[in-house]
Design goal:
By secondary structure, this protein is of the alpha/beta class. It has a single domain (4-246), classed as Alpha-Beta Complex (Spore Coat Polysaccharide Biosynthesis Protein SpsA, Chain A). The chain is 49% helix and 17% strand. The two termini are 30 Å apart. The structure holds guanosine-5'-diphosphate (GDP) and magnesium ion (MG). Guanosine-5'-diphosphate is lined by residues 9-11, 13, 36, 64, 66-67, 70, 90-92, 94, 155, 177, 209-211. Residues 9-11, 13, 36, 64, 66-67, 70, 90-92, 94, 155, 177, 209-211 line the site of guanosine-5'-diphosphate. It holds the Pfam family Glycos_transf_2. This is Glycosyl transferase family 2.
């Protein structure tokens, strides 16, 4: 029986997270909120939001470590507390919270799989992000030599906790915005199955994104690394394919 929790990385989204938390609580899963080195004021605000809520755990980074580091802090806490699955969701309310039901259904159907959203954007989505995502998804197909990962950037997904922590530990991942992409490629290389569901992603006019041009460069760098590793792994991939086609 899966034991599910929800991980919310939070940086400069204290104004939005209260609404997200209050919409998540009725689902009845414990929430792990990670304060990623927010300012003193924002950290205090977060503390006030979480302090009287049952089953809401607030974890704290002393300085800003990045989205990936926040997710990993949440996942390690989930592992320590024997959760089998962690649903990751953004703090800024961009994700369609009702789709948690779809995720839970898919976790029960395929507990060994990564469950991930496949984004349906509203009209406000910046063109540069939409195009950047298409390029990333193209490279991910190349890096995994498969069509299994439909989208590698959305932060609305569920991880099998044990396997993901092990994978993150063994490959020395980068901890910024590239984490979402790299962990999926590495999990695929480790033989993890994937399931995707369509989900609306909103870009409200008053929304604030921490995504910077430098993140785009870091993403290009990570694709260079992953493409190189894919080439180095080719002999293993070919042998694996030969063996599985004989089954
Ligand atoms: N970009 C960024 N997001 C962080 C960081 N730490 C935690 N987060 C959280 O990661 C999620 C995604 O960040 P966001 O800025 O909305 O990126 P975007 O949705 O891709 O534009 C949000 O829940 C943030 O609060 C960080 O250092 N940088
Ligand atoms: Mg966002």
């Amino acid at each position: 029986m899966p034991k599910i929790c929800i991980v919310i990385p939070c940086y400069k989204h204290t104004d939005k997270i209260e609404g997200v938390i209050s919409r998540l609580l009725p689902f009845g899963f414990p929430l792990i909120v990670v304060d990623d080195g927010n300012s003193k004021e924002e950290a205090l605000e977060l503390y006030k939001i979480c302090e009287n809520l049952r089953d809401v755990f607030l974890l704290h980074h002393d300085c800003n470590k990045g989205k990936g580091a926040s997710v990993l802090t949440g996942l390690l806490f989930a592992k320590e507390n024997r959760f089998t699955h962690a649903i990751q969701i953004d703090a800024d309310g961009q994700h369609n919270i009702e789709d948690i039901n779809k995720i839970v259904e898919l976790i029960n159907e395929a507990p060994e799989a990564v469950i991930s959203g496949c984004p349906l954007y509203d009209d406000n989505a910046p063109k540069s992000r939409v195009i950047g995502r298409k390029i990333t998804n193209f490279f991910v197909k190349l890096e995994t030599l498969s069509d299994d990962i439909v989208d590698a950037m959305i932060g609305f997904r569920a991880y099998p906790v044990e396997k993901t922590c092990l994978c993150a530990k063994s490959c020395n991942l980068k901890f910024g915005m590239t984490f979402d992409i790299e962990i999926l490629v590495r999990l695929k290389w480790a033989g993890t199955p994937f399931k995707f569901f369509e989900t609306k992603v909103a870009y409200p006019k008053d929304g604030h994104s921490n995504f910077r041009l430098s993140d785009q460069f870091k993403i290009s760098y990570i694709h260079t690394v992953l493409c190189t590793l894919m080439i180095l792994r080719l002999p293993i991939t070919i042998i694996k394919k030969l063996f599985t086609s004989h089954d």
